[in-house]
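User: Here's a structure from my thesis project, written as structure tokens. My advisor, Dr. K., wants to see whether a designed sequence matches the one we expressed. Can you design one independently, without my sequence as a hint?
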């Protein structure tokens, strides 16, 4: 038999380590030194970084291509800020999410269910490694201006924005500290994106896994337990079936409450992230219409593809949650329900009625995570692009 794997949050161990390093650890920490570290880290690398980036727009040259270049990274920073604030303001609810994953009702009680949970955990770990590889590789391009500066002796360009509010003499005097600050800051922001986005997607994967476990339970709800003959004589099969379907109803309700909890924590973040991704896609399309070196067009293409994937993947899994939850109504009919008691059939109808409204995750109380929502967002981005292009012409 397979060993039971109850610790579903084990696949988030890497994210949790980075949460602590990035000063957004959700649980209470009695250490005063960590409290000081957390406040200093957030102020220096999030709020001050974001403030400098914001006021820099006022000092930009009046050129649309330069403005768009900075605007792409600024939209990404807006998304990062929303994620940091979510973890700071929703600490207790994030801990509650982790507790629910470890609760008894979310632990499978047979080999088939355990296999589903183990598969979900392995996928989350694999997905994290894939996204981490792409993110770290792309972030490594920050070193290229520094290498060109030392090899060819050319002027060192800041990786994010020009900090035009500082005088030229000040920037020349502190060029290396400012370059280091921007490089480290954008690296930390990449880590925020990586460790929050993969955590959220992991929660969606576990919701789907729980629905798959529930699907297995419903198909076997009228099966007899493998008990001794003496025990079988003492157990009313109909009562046993009623108990099982009642547990399935409770399980479905708990999965629904878990969806509501995840939505409550990440609703605003989803709205900001999807809005910012739509804006980034729009300005990337606009930038393609302006002259630039070929390597910059390559960067724009890859950056836009990453933004598209950032909203498409959650929408894909949001659609799967809706589909899986609605199909549970058919799963119950795969059991031998025709020979069951009247009470069982009554509970069965109740369960089918509850599944008529599929489970879903809503962003900003405005859109459900689904492929139609993704299509709508892409259409909106293209519509804004055509509008900006007409205004520019």
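Assistant: Designed independently from the structure alone:
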């Amino acid at each position: 038999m397979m060993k039971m794997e109850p610790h579903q949050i084990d696949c988030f161990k890497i994210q949790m380590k980075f949460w602590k390093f990035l000063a957004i650890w959700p649980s209470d920490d009695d250490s005063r030194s960590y409290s000081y570290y957390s406040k200093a880290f957030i102020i220096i690398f999030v709020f001050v970084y974001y403030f400098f980036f914001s006021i820099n727009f006022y000092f930009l040259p009046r050129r649309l291509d330069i403005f768009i270049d900075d605007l792409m990274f600024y939209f990404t920073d807006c998304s990062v800020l929303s994620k940091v604030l979510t973890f700071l303001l929703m600490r207790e609810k994030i801990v509650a999410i982790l507790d629910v994953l470890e609760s008894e009702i979310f632990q499978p009680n047979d080999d088939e269910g355990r296999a589903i949970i183990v598969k979900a955990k392995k996928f989350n770990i694999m997905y994290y490694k894939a996204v981490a590889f792409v993110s770290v590789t792309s972030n490594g391009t920050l070193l290229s201006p520094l290498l060109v500066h030392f090899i060819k002796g050319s002027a060192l360009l800041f990786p994010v924005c020009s900090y035009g509010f500082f005088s030229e003499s000040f920037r020349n005097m502190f060029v290396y500290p400012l370059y280091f600050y921007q490089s480290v800051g954008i690296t930390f922001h990449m880590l925020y994106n990586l460790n929050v986005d993969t955590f959220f997607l992991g929660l969606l994967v576990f919701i789907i896994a729980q629905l798959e476990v529930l699907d297995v339970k419903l198909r076997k709800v009228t099966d007899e337990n493998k008990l001794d003959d003496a025990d079988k004589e003492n157990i009313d099969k109909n009562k046993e079936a009623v108990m099982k379907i009642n547990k399935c109803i409770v399980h479905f309700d708990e999965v629904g409450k878990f969806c509501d909890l995840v939505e409550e924590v990440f609703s605003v973040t989803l709205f900001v992230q999807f809005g910012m991704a739509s804006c980034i896609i729009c300005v990337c399309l606009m930038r393609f219409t302006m002259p630039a070196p070929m390597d910059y067009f390559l960067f724009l293409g890859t950056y836009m593809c990453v933004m598209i994937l950032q909203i498409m993947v959650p929408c894909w899994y949001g659609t799967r949650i809706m589909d899986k939850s609605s199909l549970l109504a058919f799963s119950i009919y795969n059991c031998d329900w025709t020979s069951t008691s009247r009470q069982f059939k009554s509970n069965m109808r109740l369960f089918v009625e509850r599944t008529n409204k599929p489970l879903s995750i809503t962003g900003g109380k405005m859109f459900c995570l689904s492929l139609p929502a993704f299509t709508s967002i892409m259409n909106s981005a293209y519509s804004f692009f055509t509008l900006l292009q007409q205004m520019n012409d």
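When you compare it with your expressed construct, this may help: The longest strand covers residues 362-363.
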